Amino acid sequence: MTPPAHPVQVLSINGWCRNGSTIIGNLLNEVDGFFHAGELHFLWKNAYGLGSNTRCGCGLDLVRCPIWSAVLAAELPPGVPAEVHAGAVRGRQRAGLRTRHTWSVLRGGVRSDDRREHAATMARAYRAIAEVTGCRVIVDSTKIAGEAALLSRVDGIDPLYVHLVRDPRAVAHSWSRQKDYALPMSALRSTAYWVGFNLATRAVVRAHPARSLLLRYEDFVRAPAATIGRLIELCGGDPSRNPVRGRTAELGTNHTVTGNPDRFRTGTTLIRADDEMWRTELPARSVAATLALAWPLMRRYRYALRPGSPRGGTAPERDQRADRRPDRRPEEARWTSD
Q1: Which of 159, 149, 154, 153 is nearest to 207 (CA)?
Q2: Most buried in the list 127, 150, 279, 330, measured by CB within 10 Å?
Q3: Which whole-number Å values give the CA distances from 298 to 159, 165, 325, in the listed order?
Q4: CA–CA separation, 233 and 238 (whole Å)
Q5: Where are the alpha helices (DSSP H) in 208-326?
Q6: Spatial distance between the Cα atoms of 78 and 132, rounded to a whole number of angstroms
């Protein structure tokens, strides 16, 4: 595979799950030159039946999807069986590129053989995606900060980082219900992950402040068109190509690797403005567990600890505060990260 004439731009969306990354990625997917890959980290695991689901956003198995079958074939090193290669990729990810490894990756980069080899794998995968799809920007909503920390060491790509955060009580409420292949999770466990993933993401954006953007999900749902417009501009795109009109957008077929099961929806999609169902539906003990674990970061990200308290912020902004170093048809589908 020949190196690209220009670097491939990768918009890396990070934070904890159920934070809106799938709908944001799929909206960007409707912009000329953008391709939402979904959670690329899980491509090798899911393609060979070892993950939670094997389907692409188009509905086909990843190994039968015209996009991912071509990417997998192009990325595969010569002479290596696909299953063996997939196992090796997963082994390197588990051993040194999990969220807990974020700080080690930021300090050590590609000094280890495993990380150097994984950076080469990522370079081949991103180049293959760009060549197969013809895109200029790849939106990667993996949300594994250990892998995001390696992006600046991947040859031939130009990384940008979005720290996407959502109220942990709304996240816990979302995780309390099963959605297709996404199993439910207790509020305590969800919030522990929320804290860990956001701390790790913060470390990545602090290492690349000029390339990073802090975005609250709540600000996105208040002003979806403006938010998507700013993300398009961040990537050097034309904001007039924004697919959001008011609160609706027409979503076509996407080719996402895993993510929120709502990724299979197409057609007219309404972005719901209210993200407050947790106030009446999340049990008090779950709210208490969430607050006990998350209150310091909740204050940092301007989430009120008590009902009725004012909350600050509107629209995405660069993380330059003290912590800088930052076929459903024809009916209308309602999008929610729940």
Answers
A1: 149
A2: 150
A3: 27, 10, 19
A4: 7
A5: 217-222, 224-234, 278-281, 284-300
A6: 19
Helices and strands of the chain, counted as H and E runs: 13, 8
3-state SS, residue 115: helix
> Residue 283 is which amino acid?
P
Written as one letter, the residue type at 271 is I
Q: How far is CA 255 from CA 21, 135, 195, 315, in A?
A: 14, 13, 30, 28
Q: Which residue has the tokens 């068109």?
A: 225
List strands edge to edge, sheet with 157-165: 34-38, 137-140, 8-14, 157-165, 212-216
pLDDT in tens, 280-301: 999 999 999 999 999 999 999 9
Contact assessment for residue 176 and residue 289, using Cβ atoms and an 8 Å cutoff: no
Q: φ, ψ for residue 305 (rounded to 5)?
A: -85, -25
Q: Which residues of the chain have pLDDT under 50?
A: 1, 3, 313-338
